[in-house]
Amino acid sequence: MPRRANDGDGQSGHVPSRGRCHLYVLPCAWEDLCKLGFSRDPLARMEALHPRFFEFFDLGRGMLVETDTVAEARAFETRLRRELVAHNAPAPLTIRAQAGGHREWYRGAATLLATATDALGEQGYRVHAPLRPWLRDALLQRSDRLYSWAEAMLSPDELQGLAGWTPAQQRVLDALDAWAAMELDPAPVLPPTVRTWHQRLRGA
Predict the structure, then answer these.
(1) Domain extent at residue 160
(2) Are residues 129 and 160 in the same domain?
(3) pLDDT tens, residue by residue, 15-32
């Protein structure tokens, strides 16, 4: 269920300093480009950056480093940004501008970032790499919200295919395709009307 979540949760105002946070490294699937940042909700951050993050990013090479506080994750990100100045690159054009995802992109830095992440793991920080197992668990943890979100997103006309193809339909499809990409079946946690719409759409 996409929602806006910028680097460090980039919400305007105060970011809570306590509680689990993650440094993330998200390599693009089709070019030597990585996004670096930190977030208390990496899944929401990925969704905010690209609606089909599960295709856009190479989840097999993506990494998360789990920290106890935002301050720790922010400090790691700041240090790495300073070390990677020579690798700065513009953001891909398909990244959502409203997500604030135009900064902290690096070209040719994948090996350096992997080495830095491995070093944090050796220091005792929990590293999630590759990303698929973590993402699978994150989606399952949010499954109770999928029912009400999907039900609220689509009107009766959209469910019956009478409204043409709408942005709301695309958002729901992207969310359900993320489940499929993680080899999860969303059908059991969908409203019957949305389940029927999705099955008809996918020819099931």
Answers:
(1) 144-201
(2) no
(3) 555 689 999 999 999 999
Whether the full predicted model's pTM is greater than 0.85, yes or no, is yes
Cβ contacts of 65-68, under 8 Å, gap ≥ 24? 65/22, 65/23, 65/24, 65/117, 65/120, 65/121, 65/125, 65/126, 65/127, 65/128, 66/20, 66/21, 66/22, 66/125, 66/126, 66/127, 66/128, 67/20, 67/21, 67/22, 67/23, 67/125, 68/20, 68/21
Same domain, 24 and 81: yes
Q: Is residue 9 part of a domain?
A: no
C-alpha torsion 39→41→46→49, nearest 10: -60
Q: Identify whether residues 125 and 166 lie together within a single domain.
A: no
Where helices occur in 42-191 by DSSP H, the ranges are 42-49, 53-56, 70-83, 110-122, 132-141, 143-153, 156-159, 167-181
Assigned domain for 3 exists: no
pLDDT at 4 over 70: no
Instruction: Give the per-residue pLDDT at 101.
Output: 74
Same domain, 34 and 128: yes
- Edge-to-edge strand ranges of the sheet holding 33-39: 105-107, 33-39, 18-27, 63-69, 126-128
